[in-house]
Amino acid sequence: MSKPRTGLLVRTDACLGCMACQVACREENGFAYSEKWFEMIRQKPKTVDGEIRNYHLAAPQLDKCAFCMEKDHRPLCTVVCPTRCIHIGNEDALLEAMQGKGDWQLMIKGDR
Amino acid sequence: MQTERKRTVCTGCHCRCGAVVYTQDNEIVRIEGDADSPYSHGAFCGSGITERFVHSDDERLTVPLKRVGERGEGKWEEISWDEALEMLAGKVRDVIDRYSARSIVVAQGTSRTSNDWGQRLKATIGNLGWGMAPLHVCLIPNIMPHVLTLGAGQMHGADVAHAKTIVLWGVSAINLLPEYKEILRQKDEAGAKVIVIDPRFNDLANNADLYLRPRPGTDGALFLGLMNIIIKEQLYDKEFIDSWTYGFDELAEMVLEWTPEKTSETTWIPAELIEEAARTMAGEKPTTIYPMLGPSCMHTNAIQSGRALTCLTALLGPVDVPGGFMYTPGGGPASSPELTLIPPDWNFNAPEANLLDGDKYPAFAAFGNANVPYSTFDAVLTEQPWPIKMMVFVANDALNCYEASPKVFEALASPNLEFIAVKDFYLTPTAKMADLVLPSSSWSERDTIDEEMFKGLIISNPRAVDPPGQCWDDWKFYLEWGRRLNPELWPWADEKEMVLWRVKLLHGIELTWDEYAEGAYFETDACKVGAEFKKYESGKLRPDGQPGFMTPSGRIEFFSHVTESLGYEPLPVYHEPLESPVSTPEVAKDYPFVLTTGFRLYSFFHSAWTNVPGQRELYPYPFVLINTKDAAEKGIFEGDWVEISSPRAAIKAKAQVSEEIGAGVIALPRPGWRQACKQLNLPGYNWDEVGINTLLPGGPGTTDKSFSTAPMRSTLCQIKRLENSDV
Ligand code: SF4
Ligand code: SF4
């Protein structure tokens, strides 16, 4: 059987865009300041059908997240998140989590 | 190498999140939120976890420095703490000999847990009160109206975890991190409605049911407009209002003119939205209002806006019910006379209180207990009404803190001011002007306590690591300085003894250090009282045990004689901001935009940490928010350097163009100032080129009339694109 696929899931209506996860990724992995392995892309409030709306988007490097999953502790990005809205995990677990209330952004690392 | 797990509290900002710090050999290897914390339940932030960098940064101040060149020249000599403390104590004696204690001003900035010890130190010198803490632009304009109207010495009474309607008024998401999960849960599970009111579409609005965007400075009118609808449509609890409040008829008459149409015209919010908000707040109860600095602080109408806020709170009563306005004991900056050495009957309005311009701003003297900052800087220059010879800034970067920064600079540069000491983490712009610079411990390096946010709980705050070099926390600093002035008043051996003494004094709990550090979470008697509801019925809100509230009438006061005695109307009358398109149309011809400054980012705290790479990379440059439509008219594109000018000064920032801010309004976050960050190769930007407070007016006729609040959230400005050659 092939290895389960790694993914990242964010409940976008709960995410504040506080970027703690992004800071945490740097802390967790200690890469150089010239690098960036994970970014919380803060979108700007925009008008939709006459009303202002907004949400933010996560941009991980999923091969690095897969590496984090093998550590003996939970990835720091998910631990520091003040709203507990970001999850790193196997595809099945993430699909399951998505059944809860909210709007979701899911990214899965495909085979190449 | 052994990894140790240390639990403590992050006091990096007022959220006070529980922290778990993993260490190896006095180095921090990892920081997490404390999932067991009964207050923050594991919430944390990006700023908090960069403490690892701060702890080990070799550019941090770690040794006391004495100026050797000219003031501001940047030439320093490293000295010992002994020598530094002798300088400080000697200068205190010298100034008292030649002038008097009131010529010495100790100005603490935001609390690094040491508020009451700072007061004790000032009392040791001979100055009772808060010295020159920036309380005029702090949360006191929220607390004071809560005292006047509701008899509650607290900055809000929000209970988001049980509310059906949650009103987030002028508060940023970063202020709500420990509590935001509760809001989400209440929305998901109880169908709670969230109303966000803020000139800026902040991240809390992303997920709100209603968003109202007031013109900055008009919140006072919006409160009145909401009350107009609630009273007209009889959406209030008549029995509660009749039994427990004072002055309802007068209030009802006063708000009559604040129809949705008039309120809309003043606040720029559509009338239908105001009506919908009023009906939701009064219909889906319990309703809880969570205000921060937005609605009723940092405006020229601060105190009366706060009075209007607290009147609306009462009108949405009954109060002191789960999910409504809660009376929370044990909170706030309240302390004990035995600690602060301020006698309980001390009159801060009397001439003997020696507060600069206390007579001109009686509300500030009474509730701020401090020298009026602008007047103090002015007194340095004029030596009137008395000279100021020595200033000590603790956790206070004055050049990025007070309004009218050029005035602050003039005072700091003046030879009249004989001695300046600054205690901070890095060489701030103010520290660069000092004669003595003292290094500070950060939150993971302190053995301390701070219960201001914990609603009666104690959550212990032991150090996770030892501070680098000779960094001292503010408690130790006050102890050692105070001891040299009057050893009898400072008998403790160290901060740990001070913590234990304080816990016993304020909470009646006797602990050893290990019990304190390892016990982590303690309930005090205040928790038991706090868990009871409608305490005004049982007499638990008054020391005399009588039913009612801690106000002169024993009722919630819509009509307040005390407010009147402080120089305001007894009812919460709305006044236009002193500088606005309505009150100064001539100024608005040249400065047509409403300017609101100082909203909080997820990085930085006040002016600190702009050099910390993990924080700075999120906000590399000073920036300004402008609406899409305004930007198009002004030929400003995303990322352009622009000039923002006021009748006082001009600064620059990079434009962020979006709907985050409404048309006609310009918003500048705090701080503008950036320290250079070598890890990211980002330059510094000095206070005089980007500092937001340079744009603001200061002094008589520009502030709240009795509280001296500077209008950081509502003035006027102009904006234009800078040509590349001007940048
Ligand atoms: S830490 Fe959580 S709330 Fe903050 S940006 Fe990341 S996912 Fe969103
Ligand atoms: S700085 Fe961050 S972690 Fe620390 S108390 Fe404030 S929000 Fe919490």
How would you describe what is shown here?
With 112 residues, chain A is of the alpha+beta class. Chain A has a single domain, classed as Alpha-Beta Plaits (2-Layer Sandwich), CATH 3.30.70.20. Helices cover 27% and strands 27% of the residues of chain A. Chain A has helices at residues 20-29, 62-69, 76-80, 91-97; strands at 6-11, 38-41, 46-48, 51-53, 57-60, 86-90, 104-108. The radius of gyration of chain A is 15 Å and the shape is globular. The two termini of chain A are 17 Å apart. Chain B is of the alpha/beta class and 727 residues long. Chain B folds into four domains: 4-56, Phosphorylase Kinase, domain 1; 65-135 and 335-449, Rossmann fold (3-Layer(aba) Sandwich); 151-329 and 549-565, Dimethylsulfoxide Reductase, domain 2; 585-721, Barwin-like endoglucanases (Beta Barrel), CATH 2.40.40.20. Chain B contains 27 helices and 23 strands. In chain B, the strands form six sheets. Chain B has a six-stranded mixed sheet, with helices on one face. In chain B, strands 18-22-19-21-20-23 form a six-stranded mixed β-barrel. In chain B, strands 9-8-7-11 form a four-stranded parallel sheet. Classes of the chains: A alpha+beta (112), B alpha/beta (727). The A-B interface holds A 13-14, 16-24, 26-28, 33, 44-47, 52-56, 76, 79-80, 82-84, 101-102 and B 30-33, 42-50, 52, 173-174, 177-178, 180-181, 184, 188, 201, 203-207, 211, 602-603, 613-615, 617-618, 656, 658-660, 679-680. The complex binds iron/sulfur cluster (2 copies). Residues 10, 12-13, 15-17, 44-45, 47-48, 177 of chain B line the site of one iron/sulfur cluster (SF4). The site of one iron/sulfur cluster has 11 residues of chain B, from α1.
